[in-house]
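One such shown below:

_____
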Amino acid sequence: MTLIAKSLEIHDSFAGRYWYALYTRHQHEKSAAETLLRKGHEVFLPLYSAMHRWRDRSKRLSLPLFPSYVFIRTRWDRRLEILDTPGIISIVGCSGRPEIVPEEQIDAVRRVVASPVSVDPYPFLQCGERVIVTDGPLIGMEGILVRKKGISRFVVSLEMLGRSAAVEIDLSNIERIGPISLAM
């Protein structure tokens, strides 16, 4: 299972409910997500699998794709309940106002994490070639093509957080869109 927090079946309208990024204490992402789920929130915590080795053993771990961040779909009027959750430091934003994470970016991360390809955290990129996936489980997604150690990787970014995730991709499954526009 790649997602710790399953979206709750919430039967009220999505009107006024947006995705926000929550900044958490170091290594408190999972417990904060579980607490928010118990409070009835729709929560998304993308995880990836990594092998960690110690001197005496090795173990496969599920780690947050974006360390110290959890995503929540909620209404702004529930912010005090959210901020009162153990492990939550703040709602990511600017000048005291939370920034809405675009639904398309959440959906892109969901698709990458749910796909059968291996996913890893990746440094946020400012430049590169924009591509669209033309075949396979990520068809229709737009991102950035990079090469690392001779392997082609498709990078999806959450611009607001300055974080990215990368998956291996076959070059025959992508098509160039063009260079990234660097808006300042």
Summary: Residues 2 and 47 are 5 Å apart (CA to CA). Residues 103-114 form the longest helix (12 residues).
